[in-house]
Amino acid sequence: MRAFALVLLVVSLWPHSFILAATDSNEIQTQKSITDRSIAIPEWNDWKRVFLLQDYNTRIVILGTTLLGMSAGMIGSFALLRKRALMGDALSHATLPGIAIAFIIATSLGLNGKSLPILLAGAAVSGLLGIGGILLIRNLTRLKEDAALGIVLSVFFGAGIALLGIVQQMQTGHAAGLESFIYGKTASMVASDAWLIGSAGLTCMLISILLYKELTLLCFDEGFANARGFPVVLLDMLLMGLVVVVTIIGLQAVGLILMISLLVIPPAAARFWTEKMAYMSLVALILGALSGMIGSAMSAIFPNLPSGAMIVLVATAMFLFSMVFGIPRGILIRKLRRHQLNSKVNRQHLLRGLYEYLEARGLLNEKQTAESTFVPMSTLLKMRSWSPAKLKKIVNRAQRDQLVVSLQADQIRLTKAGLLEAARIVHEHRLWELYLITYADVAASKVDQDADAIEHVLEPEVIAELETLLVRQSTAGVLQSPHAIEIQQEKANGHQSGTRRAT
Amino acid sequence: MGGLENWNWFLDGWIIVAGILCAASTALLGNFLVLRKMSMLGDAITHAILPGLAAAFMISDSRSSLPMFVGAVIAGILTALFTEWIRGFGKVDEGASMGVVFTSLFALGLVMIVQAADHVDLDPGCVLYGAIELTPLDTILIAGWEIPRVVVVLSVVLLINLLFVIFFLKELKLSSFDPALATTTGFNATMIHYTLMTLVAVTAVASFETVGNILVVAMFVVPPAAAYMLTDRLGRMLVLSVILAIFAAITGHISAITVPHWFGYQSTSTAGMMAVASGLLFVFAALFGPRHGIIVIFVRRQILAWKILAEDIIALMYRIEERDPQQKPDVNYLRDILFSRPVPTQLTLRYLTKQGQIKDTNGAYELTETGRDMARQLVRSHRLWEHYLVEHAGMTAETIHKQAERLEHFTDRDLREKLNADTLETDQDPHGRPIPPEENSD
């Protein structure tokens, strides 16, 4: 358990605290002050209390943040695909003047200025005004979305700060609590807050499930949706309305500035795991829920970690994990695929080089001869822009697959399987060259390069089609090359294809 | 004005100077952010600076400004880099990658600051709203003068930004308007991009330390956006944005002192009011800009709509007359055919009467000689177009009317001559109606 705690500490991404906890532990024990903020490793009891949800407060907080993460993840995935990821940011800033004005009005009417419904109503009104401003700027001026967001965000927030400056001078009521809207104070969430988050969040999710088809169409093909008679403007406003609601219920929990992260990060992370909209919103929902749950649990275990920030950091960790390991869109899998393609391309180039070398010397008529002919590596080096080390690697790999045999340091020959494979590759290359000459008007002297770019990714069906399309010019197994092949000369110019990515 | 009686040239003067310096140096760079559609980067950078400040404190264990400055600038540059990486490697949409990066860094910064709060009075509130009001209290001695530290720092930043913009104006212009061309013409657009990002981070940190991040974001985006509504030329846009920013800084501080007094309160946040002032400037520019202003565009469209309605009315009357010379249409008859709204129709009819193109005889209208000439040219344009569209654009006779209806309003005599020549001077349109002659033959 202790080891796990240490891992968690490292995950908390704060090296300094780790050092403090390790070295200053004596001091901490001797003079534990109320302002002490170092992270002590919690007792087993603390863990148990959180994991078994023994504290009423912990239960509320974890439930509330989990629900919030779920609804934000789901709504956020639509917003993300609609390229409105930063809308939540602008929106959450735009709520501030509304909060301040609601407080001022409520207090001057003798009501409790800090009552949540009043503040949230104010936030909603000014949030909607902000969205209206963004839409007006975007549609009526020549400024683009980014500038519209920036203007609304900064001006509304500035107005909010100016109004808060006034609120702080008011005689009646304490304004101090308003600050929590900016940073959020999840730890003080009460049951009614969790209920509010739960009911509003679930309603939002329900609406988006009911209108799932329409919203998906809106995100992927607005023009098509419009042509099919869907009320695009109305749907767009509905989607933004959902974003407003989720943002506002999240303000109290994670705070104004961090709310956007719940709308952006889980959907962006989910994007790495799937190509399908339905799965994406489901994964985003799960990731959002996990962020809320783990984040607030960690802040319950380590009381000095602010919960809003912890929720975000957990989400970030999930995002990074997804970005690297996500299937099918993560970095690792894409790198792997590219690597596979590259080594396939390299092997094909090697085999083709060997084949063309033998062919040019007339050594192919009797297959037996070909198999026993050794080709010097130095000749191959001249054919492609390979470095000796790289060629060595390619040869070694081909040897492992028993396509070539390398006798001494720079002598290789094709095996029987290698020769068959080489013949197939050369044939396909020439098919494609012939196609380009016949149908794409590419000059015979240029066609080699163009064919290089595509031949490695041809599907078997395409090859078959090419075969039927083009009259076989050779009765032998392999097509004649439509252009002269110069083996001994330098072919470096324009032959970068060894490293070229087949896109 | 209430509030101004407490005006103190030493205090308020320096606050305004700091505001002006900050506004000018941010607005200068902001032009390129707006043109490159990267307006939100200022916001992202200012949020993400937090962990840089905290880390700098933890490493150097001091609150002296240099390590803090360096730490924050590094964090700012990292924001731009991370955003670019996630966008590039992860293939995430630009806005989303920015959102991921800056919220994460901000959260990280909050955690670090809360942990460090015992040892450092880094108040997140101060970081967010700024404390421009405290500017004059922190001074250093330069050549026997007591000058606020902020003013010195911001002056240096402004100078650097100014030099950068002046020396690299051509490169900035090219890489902002046509990055592809900039890359192919050989100079390093990436280099310019990252220099700009670094300067944005430096400027943001320098301003943010004292005036808070709202003001920084507002000044990066709002004055340049307003200037963009007023002009099409980059040079003028740069100058205008700086002027607007300075104006916003001055009015912002004055209104922060005076406006709350009208409602019986003390002064409020200068930074907040500067943002509000620049927002109001933007609204004015967006409404009244000479070429791109919303009102100008609206009026231009209205005038065009009325002109088209007027032309439609006389062309319609010509056609009615052509069919039955005795028929004199009234308002309702015209409206029924044109589907026009009552008020604009009435106004247009009155205008046409005044122009002497139509005559009003007890509610029934008829064309005057000048009106008939005008109308004939319109109908001629229309029918020539119809003919042309069928002959040269391969459209069928059923579909051409709408197109011709649109084109006839923008067809002058020269174009009619050309159309006439192109359609081999036929005298019938595809519907079999006569194409009227250019001049009245009577």
Automatic annotation (TrEMBL), chain A:
SMART domains named in the record: HTH_DTXR
Residue span, Iron dependent repressor metal binding and dimerisation domain: 415-470
Membrane topology value: Multi-pass membrane protein
SUPFAM superfamilies in UniProt: ABC transporter involved in vitamin B12 uptake, BtuC, Iron-dependent repressor protein, dimerization domain
A Pfam family it matches: Fe_dep_repr_C
Primary subcellular site in the record, as a coarse category: membrane
Signal peptide interval: 1-21
Taxonomic lineage from the root: Bacteria, Pseudomonadati, Planctomycetota, Planctomycetia, Planctomycetales
Family: Belongs to the ABC-3 integral membrane protein family.
Keyword flag Transmembrane helix: yes
UniProtKB keywords: Cell membrane, Membrane, Signal, Transmembrane, Transmembrane helix, Transport
Transmembrane segments: 60-81, 93-111, 117-137, 149-167, 187-212, 232-250, 256-274, 281-302, 308-328
Gene name of the record: mntB_2
Name this polypeptide is given: Manganese transport system membrane protein MntB
GO biological process per UniProt: response to zinc ion; transmembrane transport
GO terms, molecular function: DNA-binding transcription factor activity; protein dimerization activity; transition metal ion binding
Automatic annotation (TrEMBL), chain B:
Family matches, as Gene3D superfamilies: ABC transporter involved in vitamin B12 uptake, BtuC, Winged helix-like DNA-binding domain superfamily/Winged helix DNA-binding domain
Keyword terms: Cell membrane, Membrane, Transmembrane, Transmembrane helix, Transport
Renumbered residue ranges of the record's region Disordered: 418-442
Composition-biased stretches (Pro residues): 433-442
Subcellular location: Cell membrane
GO CC annotation terms, alphabetical: ATP-binding cassette (ABC) transporter complex
An MF annotation (GO) of this entry: transition metal ion binding
Residue spans crossing the bilayer: 14-34, 41-60, 66-86, 98-117, 147-169, 237-263, 275-299
Topology in membrane: Multi-pass membrane protein
Domain Iron dependent repressor metal binding and dimerisation: 368-436
GO biological process, any: transmembrane transport
One Pfam family hit: Fe_dep_repr_C
Family per record: Belongs to the ABC-3 integral membrane protein family.
Name of the protein described by the UniProt record: Manganese transport system membrane protein MntB
Gene of this entry: mntB_1
